[in-house]
Every structure is written in C-alpha cells, then in structure tokens.
Design a protein that fits this description.
Elements (H helix, E strand, L loop, with lengths): L1 E4 L5 H15 L10 E2 L5 E2 L8 E9 L6 H4 E9 L6 H8 L8 H18 L1 E3 L2 E3 L7 E4 L2 E14 L2 E14 L4 H8 L11 H11 L3 E4 L8 E11 L4 E3 L6 E3 H9 L9 E6 L4 E4 L4 E3 L11 H11 L3 H15 L5 H5 L14 E2 L5 E5 L2 E5 L18 E2 L2 E5 L5 H17 L3 E2 L8 E2 L5 H19 L6 E5 L7 H12 L3 E4 L1 H4 L4 H14 L6 E2 L16 E9 L10 E8 L8 E8 L11 E4 L6 E4 L1 H13 L5 E7 L6 H19 L6 E8 L27 E3 L9 E6 L11 E9 L7 E2 L1
Parallel strand pairs: 21-23, 22-24, 22-25, 25-26, 28-33, 33-34
Antiparallel strand pairs: 1-5, 2-3, 4-5, 6-7, 7-9, 8-9, 9-10, 11-12, 11-17, 12-15, 13-14, 15-16, 18-35, 19-20, 19-27, 28-29, 29-30, 31-32, 34-37, 35-36, 36-37, 37-38
Amino acid sequence: MVSINPESKSRQTNREVLSELIKVHGKTSLGGKLPAYDGRKSLYTAGSLPFESEEFTVTLVDPEKKDKERAEREYKITIRIAGRTDLYHLQQFLCGRQRDMPQETIQVLDVVLRESPSWNYVTVSRSFFSTTFGHRGDIGEGLECWRGYYQSLRPTQMGLSLNIDISATSFFKPVTVIQFVQEFLSLRDVSRPLNDRDRVKIKKALRGVRVETNHQQDQIRRYKITGLTPIPMSQLIFPVDDRGTRMTVVQYFMDRYNYRLEHTNWPCLQSGSDSRPVYLPMEACKIVEGQRYSKKLNDKQVTNILRATCQRPQQREQSIREMVLHNKYAEDKFAQEFGIKVCSDLALVPARVLPPPMLRYHDSGREKTCAPSVGQWNMINKKMINGGVIDNWACVSFSRMRPEEVYRFCCDLIQMCNATGMSVCPRPVIDIRSATPNNIENTLRDVHRRTDEIIKKQGNGQLQLLVVILPEVTGSYGKIKRVCETDLGIVSQCCLPRHASRPNKQYLENVALKINVKAGGRNTVLERAFVRNGIPFVSEVPTIIFGADVTHPPPGEDSASSIAAVVASMDWPEITKYRGLVSAQPHRQEIIEDLFSVTKDPVKGTTVNGGMIRELLIAFRRKTGRRPERILFYRDGVSEGQFSHVLLHEMDALRKACASLEEGYLPPVTFVVVQKRHHTRLFPEVHGKREMTDKSGNILPGTVVDLMICHPTEFDFYLCSHAGIQGTSRPTHTMFFMMRIISQPMLFSH
C-alpha cells in the first residue's frame, strides 16, 4: 500500500514520484526489488520488502519552471505491507479445482505486464496509444485518430492468457486553441466574434483540457481549462496588483509581455477557480499533445475513424503479430522480475461450424423452406409468412428529392410491400409532404394532426405508418424517432435519400421486411417450430424469452438518464413476435431498476406490484393462454466487474415478479449474459481457404469456440453468428447460468 503526500490525482505524477524513490532508495531500502505500480495506491514486488512500514522523502524538479525554489517540490511516500497474493489459489482455479476466481492475484500480474507500456505510451483504460504505432489520421473538427493496442490478462482453460487486440481512439490535435476553434466550428472568418451558441460549444469541448502558453519564450507553463469567459478579452478587466490597479487582458499582455493580441473580440480561456481565475488568451495557448477526446463523436468523425482503422482479418492478424513483436515481452524487465513469460504466437484453438436454422416462408400460397447460405438469405420471389395490414399511411420528405421522385419511390415501396405478402392501401391519407430540415418537429406534428383529423372523419382507426425521407445532412434521425415514436405514437420508417432516389429491388424488399414487422406481421419463422420435435429446449414447455439492455448517455451528458429496455417473446412456440418496454433510471446505472416494483395505491392504501417483468409475463399469458414454464433471460452490456452484482439483483427481481403473480410459481431460469464489447478476435488458421472463410475473409458464420480460450469453470463460448461485411468480425461472448427461482437464497448450478 502506497500513500503520497501531497496527494496527486495524476497517475503520471505519482509514477514520477515512485520512479525517483526507486532511483534513490531502490538498491538500499527496497532491497533491490523492482516494484510494479498501478499509479494509485497499490505497489507490488516479487518477494517481501525488508520492512513492514517505512516513510521516504523525495524531491522532484519541474524543468519548466525557472525559479529553483518553485521548481522543487518535496513528496513524502509511505509504504506499508497490505498483504500477500496466493498463487496456489490461482493455480487451483485455472485447473478447475476452485470455483471463486482470485481476482486480486490476476490483477497483480496484469499490473506487472502493464508497467512498461504505462511509461512509454498514453494509457486509456486497458489500452495504450502512441504516434509511433502508425500515421495519425485527421478525423475532423480539431481531432485526430491514434493507433494503439488493448492488453488484458485473462484466466482461460489454457491457463493465464494475454488478450491483445489492435485499437484506435480520438485525440485532440496538438494545435493552438485558435486553430482548434476554427476547425471545431468550421469558421472561415476568425475575425468575427463568437456568438453565445459557439461559446457554449467551445466551453463544453475544452473543459478539462491541458494547454501550454507560448507568450513567454523562456518559460512554458501548463494549465487546465475550467471554463470560458462570458465577455471578450478586450472588455475583460481584472486586478493586476495589491493596490487595486485594474486593466483589460489586452492591456496586461502588452504591458507585461510586450505581446500584441489579435483576436481581441474573442473570449479568454479560464483556468483555476472562480474565486481565483487565471485568464488565458486563446492565441497564446497550445493544446498539449496526447489528450484523449472522451466525448461523443459525430457521424462524420465516426466514419473517418472507421475508415482509418478498418482492417480485413489477414491484415488485423498481421498487425497484432507485429504489435506483440514490437512490445518485446521477453525483454520486459518487470516481467523478468516477476518470472512471467509470454509466448509470441497466437493460440490455435479448435472450432466447429453450427448448421444454419431452416426458415419457413410463403411461395404461391404454399409454405416452403429456405436454408441460409453463409449467414445470408433473401426474400426475392418469396412472401412473408404473415403479412401486416396498413390502411392508413403518409409520407414526408426532408430531402432535396423532387416531389415526383418521392412519389415514384412511395409507389414502388407500396407495390413491393403488397407483392411480398402485406396488404397496404395504395394511396396515402394525405398528399406526400416536402419540408426543410430546419422545421422537422413542427412538420411531423402538423402531418400527425392533419392525418388524425381525416382518419377520425372516416372512422378508420389511426395512422399506422409514416415514411420519412431523411435530409442529406446527418444528425436528424434521433430527433425524428423521438418525436414519432415517443411524443406522437407514430410508427415510422426512415429512408436515406441516396437510396430512395435510386431504389433497387433488393433495397425495396429489405425496407418492406422492416415495415412488415412494425405492422405486426412476421417475415419468416423457424422450420423447427413446426416439426414434431420442435425447437430444442424451447418447444418442450411454454417458454418466454426476454432480452434486456441499458443504454447510457454519452460522456459529458451528466444530467441525462440511462434508459433500460426489456423485450419478451409473445408467440410461443414460434418465437418471432416481441413486445418491448422502456424505463428511465439513474445516470449510468447498469442494474435495471424497474424489472419489479412495489408501490402503494394513494387512494386505497394497498400494495401494488408492478415492473417490466411482471407486465410482460401477464402479456405472454394473455397472448398464448399459457403461463411460461421456463424463462430464458438474455442480458446484454454487462462488464465482467459488474457481472455478479447485476446477476444477483436481476434474478431477485425475476423471482419476486413470478411470486407476485401466483403462489408457488417458480419456473426455472436460464440467465444468459451476452458480451460484444470485448477484444477476442478469431482468425482462420489458413487465410483465403474457401471452406474456412466467407467472401470478406472472416471466419464462417456459425463458427463456435467453446474450448481453451474459455473460462476455466463457467459455461461460456464464443460464437460468430453473422457474415462479415467489412473489417474483422467480432464474435459474441456468451455465458450461461442455469438456475431455479426459489424463495430461499439462490443456488447456482450448470
């Protein structure tokens, strides 16, 4: 255990303090040990230190400060023994003889292997980035893309394995703040003042960013931006001495540094606190290199970063191999100190390809089957198994498409819907509407109001579908969906103008399939749902399948809620129709709060049971006439650190929801955690071999790996369930837990 006084929040500063300690006292007081440090509170050594607790003093010198007294800073470091890791426990766990994972021991070894790169590269979570790994790519608006690699130590059936993958992320470009603002706001004329909207955007983007000043040639000082001044620097007056002398920032820089500021109608950057602010002109500051941009990227930036980093499987595998060789684990002095050896070859694992499920569809009034080929199938000359009915629809275009083009697209789309088995009225409720992207919300509300009036007069239900041609400029999809689905209760189908202006048969069929599902129809069903044995496990008894996930707001949106969504199958035994519910919950909370709830009726004073699970179980019984005798609960988005916590809490909610419906109702549950945000990649043993890869060079869809790289004791596997399109496919990592809901503490078994 390490404590440093004065305490620093910077891992880099803490590492520099410990480095100085090792340099001065390593051979004597530390007994020649080379410790691994996590940059916070934990220090690990191979073997015991020659003391139980000791205090050291070191002095760091800041080379950027001219004044020697201010440049030197003294730190007191206290090191005391907090415990010893149990390698025998780890060995037993890896052999499958012990159930609980020795997380602390694995963490120690992980910190050891991360020590060297932590000094040489920019660390972001479990990844390391550097400009030495490849060309930095400009992704727009003052940002650039850096390449790097992800590294993590994982327990597997083979023993401890080092998971390495290529990664990339966005960084601020090391340019002057004036240049950044110019790029970020796409300004052509930097002489004009910034309006309030631009000022808020810049303040949000630059808060927390470190800059270095360039107005003093003999001294570079660094600051962290805390805000932006509300007024231009030419009007910003502040006290400059104890006598109460006040002057503007422009005057101060001229008098003190003989530095003539040009952008005097722009605001200043602010550092320090509101009580003791430091004002920094943007043109006198440069963004320090190596700072990650952690906020949400726009669509154009995401496209640029994907274009810069997308690699086919053979290229990606080669990049990973080159990265491993570049890291030189055999020469890592920290790995040598702790006796860790890393094999430089990729692990060769056995895999098998699961057969695709047979699908049932309609053809000329008869039901036929279709076998997907390499993860794909089409509905050309086929009809949906159940076509939806749409009597009332409308269309609005926010694009630059001509009205006759929009009309032709709608005719082709409706014709395709009817040709594939739906029943759609050929005419819209109101004439096709065109509008500008500046007035999206009002246009949607007006279309809803007008169609509602006409439909009510006809006594013919409600608007069932709104076809929306999106604007050419991206960014409006979320707003359209929010207004239609949430505010107005309209089912919408959005189409890109580049596709709608030149629709081919395949595109129209794909859109028709989406519309049919939204209209309550079914496109295809699994063939095994109709045969005698049915779908294994699911068809034996009434089974409900849940899917649950939580969507969190992007970084920087601190006041926004997280949104939990749960869907459940409603048409056993076919399992093709789902009902969904959503619920807002506390910011960035992963556990779903509203699975089961108990409230009090304010009028009657009685207890009322509720929650999404209970509501979906009731809906299943109404639809099928049977209560679920088995529950499959698929959970997405849970990290390994939160896994047990989420599992226990949400299983408890499932138990209570079932118990609230009927006394003694205790169906068995299979809790399945599905992870996509991991860094395990599967490559074919021989690239380009037809029986091993699809057209993109990726492993075949249906490829499953359940040996060697999987968990030592739990039931998990990796499955590539889809065909590759571009880049390298990411398999899903799935972990199963079989359990029975009981009133006593939960028992886990496979």
